[in-house]
Structure formats: structure tokens, C-alpha cells
């Protein structure tokens, strides 16, 4: 799905992120399941991940990231008109986590709702909010990717438990003033014939959790990693190429690529196919693992705050997740 150009440009005015204090290392996981630091680092690039406390919910992490993004944007929560939270681990099935965050940060004017697009959710939210702002429906929006994946992880399955972590990232979008940066092009895609490759099978209306199946790990993430890996590389490359082409850029014009943080081998393969040197590709998955919708949002904030790009630079964000879903955005900072 592509977009047409619009008179009102939309910029990213501030970013923020938050990760829980508790670090879970590969060594600790090696004592829990039959794995090793060597296997995890070689196959994924992940060295450690963060785990939220029992009383630390997705909304709490999202609120902390949101307040940091607001501070950087120089805005008060009360000015925000729209909050969209991307998550597959909402505090509660209903109401939306965005409603909890609206109350926690005091964004009393904001319309708030969640979207479910797994790891692609933050860029889905970016496209939706860009359009709603450029159409004039809202002046600004807070987009948040927040996940407590530790609550849907099967800690007995070495094939998945080594991959995931908790955290949140956020960005404030608003109408751009002349001379400011803008979200230049966005792309989203879905292949619903491949839902079975990556899913939480139980806990929804198809397979409710009952006293009989409560111990079957139905409410945890399952993944056919090899199949997902191949499709992720292809779809992320295609999505990134589309936004780069639509923006009228070339590979050498790109200061920073910020990919979904699932696997270093996927990231390297995409950098290679896009002909972007590795030192222009932002990676933080060694610290946090795969935090689904939060991953690209946390990476964007860390890249921004670490000076990986400056005003006027061209950056490309690209993601892939359950659905299967994928998305990309070309942003002039
Ligand atoms: N420790 C040791 N051995 C392991 C582990 C582990 N933690 N996990 C699996 N193995 C074993 C397997 O049992 C298998 O053994 P076998 O050959 O005897 O059968 C062997 O290692 C190879 O397993 P594979 O699954 O084939 O390993 P692969 O190289 O494909 O790596 C991985 C697995 C890391 C999951 C990779 O496929 C991947 O990253 N896939 C894509 C993930 C992704 O991008 N997800 C999208 C977003 S996630 C979201 O939306 C929430």
C-alpha cells in the first residue's frame, strides 16, 4: 500500500524509549534451557534482553517512553490529540493500552486506540498518524511501540525464549514547519496466508484458555524461524527499496537504516541487498533482543540520541513481523 503526496508535511518532533532494569543474560538462559551463549550470539546476535517486573505493565513502559518523547519535542501531554499504541501484549484485552497510557501521562484531550500488527506495528502507526495529520484531522500524534513479551514467552522452549525481551519506544509526530524534516514515504504490506508461521495460538476467541488447557503454553509465541527468516529478508528489502525509490534517494544518500531488531543475520542480509554499508545500519539487538513493536521505536530513539544522524539526513526504517506484516518509512530528519 502506497500513498499520494499531501500539502501538509508531517515531522518526527521527538523520540523516547524505556527498557526495564532487569537484564537477562544468555548465560542465565543457558541454565534454564538447553542452549549456550555461543549458539544464541552466532545465530541471532543477541547477548542479553530486559525483563519487566511483575507489576510493570506494557502501559507503564509505554508511558515512560512517551514522556521522554514529549520532553524532547518540547510538548506537554495535554497538547497531544491522538495516541496510537502498537502492541501484541496489551495490559488487558480491552480496554486498549493506549487508554491506560492516556490516563497515566495525563493526555486528556487525546483520542487513544491500539493497533495489532506485531513487530510492524510502530511503522503501521506512523503511516496511519501521518495520514490523519496531513489530512488535517489531528495536529499531532503520539505513536508508541510497547511490549511485555516476557508475559507471552514459553520459558521451556529454547527455540523462542532466547529471542524476546521487553521495552517501549515512542515518537511525537506533528505538522512540520517550513524547513523542518518530514516523513517522505511509507509502505505497508501483509500476507495473511502465512499467519501460522508466527502466532500466539490461544487466549483469543478461536482457542480460549480453559482449566483443561491452561498448562499447554497456548498463550505463548510460536515461530517457524527458518521460514520466517527467508520471507523477512525478501519483504524488508522490497519495502525499503520502495520507500527509497519513492523518496527519490539512492543508497549512498542514506545516513542511517533502522531495521527491526530480530536477528543480526537478517539485518546484515538486508544491508547487503540494499548496498548500504554496515556502519550506517543501526543495531541494538545485542542489548534487548526482539521486542516486537517496540524494537524499531527503541532503535530510532537510541540512534537519534546517539547522533547516528543529524537534521536534514535521510533515514530509512524497515520492519517485519507476525501476520505476516512488513512496513518501511523514508524520513528526512
Ligand atoms: N539453543 C541451541 N540450539 C537451538 C536453539 C537454542 N536456543 N534453538 C534452536 N536450536 C537448535 C534447533 O533445535 C535445531 O537443531 P536440529 O538441527 O538438531 O534440529 C538447530 O538449532 C537449528 O535450528 P533452526 O531453527 O533451524 O535455527 P536457525 O538458524 O533458523 O535460527 C532463529 C533460528 C534464530 C529463530 C532464526 O530462524 C530467526 O531469527 N528467524 C526469524 C525471526 C524473525 O525475524 N521474526 C520476525 C519477527 S518476530 C515477531 O513478530 C514477534
Description:
The protein is α/β, with parallel strands linked by helices and 333 residues long. It has two domains: 10-180, Thiolase/Chalcone synthase (Peroxisomal Thiolase, Chain A, domain 1, 3-Layer(aba) Sandwich); 183-332, Thiolase/Chalcone synthase (Peroxisomal Thiolase, Chain A, domain 1, 3-Layer(aba) Sandwich). It is built from ten helices and 13 strands. The strands form four sheets. Strands 1-7-6-4-5 form a five-stranded mixed sheet, with helices on both faces. Strands 8-13-12-11 form a four-stranded mixed sheet, sandwiched between helices. Strand 4, helix 4 (97-105) and strand 5 form a beta-alpha-beta unit. Helix 3 (58-73) crosses helix 4. The longest helix is centred in the last third of the chain and has 23 residues, at 225-247. It binds acetyl coenzyme *A (ACO).
Strand order of the largest sheet: 1-7-6-4-5
User: Can you tell me the number of structural domains?
Assistant: 2
CATH fold type of the largest domain: Peroxisomal Thiolase, Chain A, domain 1
Radius of gyration: 19 Å
Mean pLDDT: 96
Instruction: Provide the helix percentage.
Output: 25-40%
Number of strands: 13
Provide the low-confidence segments as ranges: none
Architecture (CATH level 2) name of the largest domain: 3-Layer(aba) Sandwich
Supply the CATH superfamily name of the largest domain: Thiolase/Chalcone synthase
The 3D shape can be described as globular
Helix-strand topology string = EEHHEHEHEHEHEEEEHEHHHEE
**Which sheet architecture does the biggest sheet show?**
5 strands, mixed
Query: Termini, distance in Å?
Result: 23 Å
Q: Give the class from helix and strand content and strand pairing.
A: alpha/beta
How many DSSP H or I helices?
10
Bound molecules: acetyl coenzyme *A
Proportion of β residues? 15-25%
- Under CATH at level 1, the class of the largest domain stands as Alpha Beta
Amino acid at each position: 500500500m502506497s500513498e499520494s503526496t499531501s500539502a501538509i508535511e508531517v515531522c518526527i518532533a521527538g523520540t523516547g524509549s524505556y527498557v526495564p532494569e532487569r537484564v537477562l543474560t544468555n548465560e542465565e538462559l543457558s541454565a534454564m534451557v538447553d542452549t549456550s551463549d555461543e549458539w544464541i550470539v552466532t545465530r541471532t546476535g543477541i547477548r542479553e534482553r530486559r525483563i519487566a517486573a511483575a507489576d510493570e505493565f506494557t502501559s507503564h513502559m509505554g508511558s515512560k517512553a512517551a514522556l521522554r518523547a514529549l520532553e524532547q519535542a518540547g510538548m506537554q501531554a495535554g497538547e497531544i490529540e491522538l495516541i496510537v499504541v502498537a502492541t501484541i501484549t496489551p495490559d488487558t484485552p480491552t480496554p486498549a493500552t493506549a487508554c491506560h497510557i492516556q490516563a497515566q501521562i495525563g493526555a486528556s484531550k487525546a483520542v487513544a486506540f491500539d493497533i495489532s500488527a506485531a513487530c510492524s506495528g510502530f511503522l503501521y502507526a506512523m503511516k496511519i498518524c501521518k495520514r490523519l495529520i496531513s489530512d488535517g484531522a489531528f495536529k499531532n500524534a503520539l505513536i508508541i511501540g510497547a511490549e511485555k513479551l516476557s508475559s507471552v514467552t514459553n520459558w521451556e522452549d529454547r527455540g523462542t525464549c532466547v529471542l524476546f525481551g521487553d521495552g517501549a519506544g515512542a515518537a511525537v509526530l506533528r505538522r512540520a514547519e517550513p524547513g523542518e524534516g518530514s516523513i517522505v514515504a511509507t509502505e505497508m504490506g501483509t500476507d495473511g496466508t502465512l499467519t501460522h508461521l508466527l502466532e500466539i495460538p490461544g487466549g483469543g476467541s478461536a482457542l480460549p484458555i480453559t482449566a483443561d488447557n491452561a498448562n499447554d503454553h497456548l498463550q505463548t509465541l510460536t515461530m517457524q524461524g527458518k521460514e520466517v527468516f527467508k520471507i523477512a529478508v525478501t519483504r524488508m528489502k522490497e519495502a525499503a527499496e520502495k520507500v527509497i525509490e519513492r523518496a527519490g534517494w539512492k543508497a549512498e544518500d542514506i545516513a542511517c537504516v533502522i531495521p527491526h531488531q530480530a536477528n543480526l543475520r537478517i539485518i546484515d542480509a538486508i544491508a547487503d541487498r540494499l548496498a548500504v554499508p554496515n556502519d550506517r545500519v543501526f543495531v541494538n539487538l545485542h542489548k534487548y533482543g526482539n521486542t516486537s513493536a517496540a524494537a524499531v521505536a527503541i532503535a530510532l530513539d537510541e540512534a537519534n540520541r546517539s547522533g547516528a544522524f543529524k537534521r536534514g539526513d535521510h533515514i530509512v526504517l524497515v520492519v517485519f513481523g507476525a501476520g505476516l506484516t512488513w512496513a518501511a518509512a523514508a524520513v528526512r530528519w
